[in-house]
Amino acid sequence: MLGINHISTSQSKATAAQLNAAAPRQTSSSIIKWLFGHLRPYKKQVAIALTALILSSLAWLLLGQGIKYVVDQGFIASNKDALEQALFIVIGVVVFGSIATYFRFYWMVWLGERVCADIRKSLFSHLVTLTPSFFENTRTGEIISRFTSDTTLLQSVVGTGVSMALRSIVMFVGALVLMSITSFTLTILVFIAVPLMLIPIRVLGNKVRIHSKLSQDKVAQVGGMIDESLHEIHTLQAYNHEHASSTLFAGKVEGVMHQARKRIHFRALLIAIVMVISMTAIFIVAYMGALMVIDEKISAGELTAFVFYAVLAGGAIATISEVIGELQKAAGASERIIELMQEMPAITEVSRAVLSEINPQDRSEVALSISNIDFTYPGASIELLTPKEEKQSRFSKMRGKKNTPSQSHQTPSSSASQNSQVQSTNTLSSSKTAALAKSNNKGEFEEGTNANAQKPNSKVINNVSFDVASGKRVAIVGHSGAGKSTLFELLLRFYDVDNGEIQLFGQPIKQLPLHEVRKHFALVPQDAVIFAGSVSENIGFSNPNASEDDIKEAAKMAFADEFIEQLPQGYHSELGERGVKLSGGQKQRIAIARAIVANRPILLLDEATSALDASSEQFVKKALEQLMQQKTTIIIAHRLSTVVNADEILVLDKGNIIARGKHHELYEASEVYKEFVDLQLVE
Ligand SMILES: Nc1ncnc2c1ncn2[C@@H]1O[C@H](COP(=O)(O)OP(=O)(O)OP(=O)(O)O)[C@@H](O)[C@H]1O
After folding, report:
1. How far is the CA of 483 from the centre of ligand 1 (A)?
2. Any idea where the ABC transmembrane type-1 domain is (predicted)?
């Protein structure tokens, strides 16, 4: 079956930790540069936010002077007029500060949201260019987590965190200056108290951070389990696994709770200790200040203003230390996002300058020409290295060389696939690698056997050659695991062949842009893929220029129009996630209509093996016939009628073409084909 649904939740997938291990570590400055690089297009908004931030901070600092005036000129001098005047000034300052705060808050949070939206957009655009091998080796849950929680973390840090930190820095410096002007002696006293406060902030803050990280990891595991259970709900329920899954889930949630308890404990302790130290320090400073007032060294107003500034400065320090923790978290999140952004597609296009396009007029008689191709899945051969080769491989990796010994025989043109092999080697978990090695060898691989002797068997496609003339129909038959779907993957250039060449209308596909190759193929996988969306959106998915009429026309040709019209909102009916509201045959007809709308010259069809009821079967058969009219078709055949009507049949066995010809010739000439037809093909 063609693995169109590449993202699965297989246990054997590499975790992000393994992915991260392979990626180069980011330095703090590169992370900051990357993050603030996203602010560059919004210089105007940054300027407004910063101006508002400075103005609002100055307003709050000015308030201290207002308080001093109230105390000295109003209270102490018992002057009602001065009190009234001071009241108006203070209210004016408060209103001004509040307006500036509005702008500061609005634009800072706006910038956070903006940066987050931009990062999400570019991350998604990048992810959809990565080749399937990447998604086979990375857990979906991890990618989703980078998308959602990591970008959300950045959003809150850029929006709120940075704003709070900047405001606190301005406040702290301003308060410090005003404190020293008000009373130098008291300022020195405060300076003795500040380090006392910083010690618990540093020690306990570290503990809080460690436990936050651990609890984030545990939350990610919970997310992974929800993702897996809900996607596989049918299997879960069919095996009455609800209770067992719930128990397992409860265990994981309790794990989060346990971790959270430790984090909360340290956080609460931190708050309590900082409170004791800061309040004690303030009271001691206030006491010393009161003594100075009695000795008439400073005025009562000055003391009040001083305490006000000391509280502001203390608050600013607490905020800064909190934000530093947040920034560290954000740095981790940025690093995880940057790693994803730096992940390169395993398939690389040759330089734009030498890329050509296929002119529809120049389409040659031969639509596809496949010559002597070999292919091994990336990473599949690593398990087959001899201990000596493994040692060499590790050594060359340590020295930064990319080639593993098993790749050294490859031609320079296969460098992209070499890169992908190196990537996957780095990221594949050992269980996956072992599984792959086993599957590729069809059980022939045994521990302790000579690895070199096994090497040829790891090839999924072995020296395959065939041509498909324009307008002809080629059927591929073979046992499960013979390599039929892999051939499709190679034609669509999801992977590069290790040796040999594939030509599309006379041009090597490696010389064509990827989109140019793929725009010549319409793919109908065995399991029809339905996206969450309306019927129209699902059919029109393959062609953004398709009109409503084109979509209806295609649905009619695919014998889907009738059942679509019976849906509650016809073509606008929502199909639900993965098309849960449709039957198997209906999904297939939607997929066929999608291929009709695409109107591509070559069809890649993977005939469904799942049994449909007789009338559905007939509809799907007729729909496929419509689709294949006047098209070049390669079809992975599971039905007798398909092979009987094919212009050529290729019999694939363990990656080799072992027989080819028309049905009646092969049935007579090839034992394997005869056996295959008799046992496997349905009427
Ligand atoms: N992404 C992959 N990574 C590693 N090995 C793979 C991958 N996909 C398939 N294989 C292996 O390649 C071999 C050929 O698989 P392929 O899916 O091409 O077979 P198939 O003939 O289409 O089988 P089926 O009829 O069961 O779909 C199998 O041994 C399979 O285990």
Report:
1. 6
2. 47-329
Q: Is the CB of 485 under 6 A from ligand 1?
A: yes
Residue 158 sits in the same domain as residue 299: yes
Q: What is the pTM of this model?
A: 0.66
Residue 81 or residue 580, greater confidence: 81
Sign of the alpha-carbon torsion through 531, 533, 537, 539: positive
Q: Give the 3-state secondary structure of residue 542.
A: coil
Q: Which helix (H) or strand (E) holds 467?
A: strand 461-469
Domain boundary among 342, 366, 395: 342
Contact predicate 90/63, CB 8 Å: yes
Question: E-strand spans in 39-172?
Answer: none
Looking up tokens 């206030």 gives 286
Residues 91-108 have a mean pLDDT of 91
- Statement: residue 84 has pLDDT above 60: yes
For 545: left if phi > 0, alpha if psi spans -120 to 50, otherwise beta; the answer is alpha
Residue 502 pairs with which residues in a beta bridge? 370
Nearest CA to ligand 1 atom 20: 481
Q: Please, what sign has the CA dihedral across residues 409, 413, 419, 424?
A: negative
* Residue that finishes a domain, picked among 442, 458, 474: 458
Q: What is the pLDDT of residue 636?
A: 92
The pLDDT-based confidence of 446 (bands split at 50, 70, 90) is very low
Give ipTM to 2 decimals. 0.97
Q: How far apart are CA 333 and CA 340, in angstroms?
A: 11
Alpha helices in 492-534 (DSSP H): 514-518
Q: Could you identify the atom of ligand 1 that is nearest to the CA of residue 482?
A: 21
β 499-504/366-375 pair status: antiparallel
pLDDT at 286 over 90: no
- Between the CA of 421 and the centroid of ligand 1 the distance, in Å, is 17
- Measured torsion, CA atoms of residues 666, 668, 671, 676, in degrees rounded to the nearest 10: 60
546: containing domain: 528-599
How many angstroms separate the CA atoms of 123 and 114, rounded? 14
Q: The domain that contains 311 carries what CATH number?
A: 1.20.1560.10
Give yes or no: residues 334 and 289 share one domain: yes
Query: Is 398 or 34 the better-scoring residue by pLDDT?
Result: 34
Instruction: Tell me, yes or no, whether 100 and 223 share the same domain.
Output: yes
372, 378, 377, 390: which is closest to 452 by C-alpha? 390
- Closest atom of ligand 1 relative to the 652 alpha carbon: 21
CA 12 / ligand 1 centre spacing (Å) = 16
Residue bearing the bigger pLDDT, 145 or 214: 214
Q: Using alpha carbons only, what angle is made at residue 591 by residues 586 and 596, rounded to the nearest 5 degrees?
A: 120
Q: What's the number of domains the chain is made of? A: 3
